[in-house]
Specification:
mainly alpha; elongated
């Protein structure tokens, strides 16, 4: 008995992997935003960093989702994103935290 991977399974695995990488990328952006906000004392730079983060995250997330599933939001896409986001947050916390 041989196990064959169907086109659907391969497509879902690709979506899961790409969205996992999207989660890692967005968490990295989040950590950079936190670093910039910790270093800069002015409120203007903190607000600007927040706006840039949300714009970049939205653009990146939509690009990743379009690449892997033509913009279709599916359960495995969300699970892949959350797994990448939370795993990156847990394994690589904000190591440059200001002391």
């Amino acid at each position: 008995m041989s196990l064959a991977l169907t086109e659907l399974i391969v497509s879902q695995a690709k979506t899961l992997a790409v969205m996992f990488c999207a989660g890692i990328f967005v968490e990295s952006l989040w950590q950079m935003k936190k670093y910039v906000q910790a270093v800069c004392g002015l409120r203007f730079w903190k607000v600007l960093a927040e706006l840039i983060f949300w714009a970049a995250s939205g653009a990146a997330l939509s690009a990743f989702l379009y690449y892997c599933a033509y913009g279709r939001l599916t359960f495995h896409a969300v699970m892949g994103f959350l797994a990448g986001f939370l795993l990156w947050k847990k394994l690589f916390p904000l190591f440059w935290r200001r002391r």
